[in-house]
Amino acid sequence: MMKKYVVxxxxxxxxxxxxxxxxxxxxxxxxxxxxxxxDLTTGNWVGVKGQAPEKHSNSSGALVSxxxxxxxxxxxxxxxxxxxxxxxxxxxxxxxxxxxxxxHYRLGWTQTQRPGxxxxxxxxxxxxxxxxxxxxxxxxxxxxxxxxKDLFWEDNANYSFNIKRxxxxxxxxxxxxxxxxxxxxxxxxxxxxxxxxxTAKFWNLKAEGKTSLxxxxxxxxSEPGAVMFFSGLLIAAAVRRRREQNx
Length: 247
Known about the structure:
Layout: H1 2-18, E1 22-23, E2 31-33, E3 45-46, E4 54-64, E5 69-81, E6 91-100, E7 103-109, E8 132-138, E9 141-148, E10 159-166, E11 169-174, E12 177-182, E13 188-211, H2 223-246
């Protein structure tokens, strides 16, 4: 009975410690998904082994994490809408609470406002939103949670982002623009980045929170000490029982 209790306690301690905190990011293990708005997967993500995923071609698609966060979390990093050999001015953004291309949050940003202008060949979100926008997608149905219509990115500029969930509150700092939204639709899900008909680079990606995937190298170094401690208790208990039996 003592053995079962101690082992159960040990596993609970390790699990509780391992399930929360800083999450190891390895974008080489992330999966390529269809674009969250246009449902297209074109072009390749490069730089994933160097932890700086980038789209070189004028292409679309999402790159989503190999772990799922639960409840409160923090997702941060940097990005740059890159300009290469051709003009490009479409969508660069982030996804979180990701279940699949039809169920997620997406935070997107365009360079100019296209609908109704002379440049009618530009790419917009399926909702028609341009500028900076936050969309909640549920079963393929889009709802706009936030939109700054006249805020646009600049070529090759470096921007930072920080997305934080605390209970039902989403706090977003995107390129220095801060806003807050109350929504609990996707309280767990994958994290990721995306482009739609756009070149872009993302780097220094970081995440904190509770996750369902724990890479072995992220187990706290103090764990062996804990194992030895509880193993010592088991040995001591066994010796004590043997002495009582021989008494």
